[in-house]
Amino acid sequence: MSWTHYLALIRIEDKNERNFYEIETINNNWSVRELKRQFDAALYERLSLSRDKEGIQQLAQKGQLIQKPLDFLKDPYILEFLDLPEQHHYSENDLETAIIDKLEHFLLELGKGFTFVARQFRMTIDEKHFKVDLVFFNRLLKCFVVIDLKIGELTHQDLGQMLMYVNYHDRTIKLPDENKTIGIVLCKDKSQTLVEFTLPENNDQIFASRYQTILPDKQTLIDLLNEGEI
Fold it and tell me: Which of 10, 129, 161, 190 is deepest in the core (most CB within 10 A)?
């Protein structure tokens, strides 16, 4: 790391958070600009929210380890680099096009081990055609990751559609030595209760995450973390 990297890191007051960003900078060869972007986008807090105390300590000691789907999932994903104003009206196609135009940034936001496979991947079932917005492959988990974009509130139909996409990939695309496909519905808003009642209790393949087109309020995320410790 350069001296400028260390100058950015020493400004992080929380020791665990500082350790995390130092490890991730070294492991991912982040530039100073990318380090500052990940800090401003509250990567540490967003990953910590889905972990227990032991998991948070692991982030501080080892960085982000990808061993199962939940390890790379975030809620929300931060897409401020797309330059789509928060209140501006745009279509799902506009969102998809913006992601493709900034694919390198989107891969960094997704996390470790992701490679791009396809856009608008077509599936034909009983002579009917269906398309999933984005398909990736995660080299660490050795599985496909299919992503569908929704600009509005998540519905149970969206989750059912994703189940079909995941099953299609598992049964016709993935190789025998690859792991089960992961499906993510990336939406503007969601009801966690709806997600829990729609998906099986032992679900480990289909997930719903929100996205934001502006940087998050770090203090709000910190407060949520502190509430979880009470």
Answer: 190
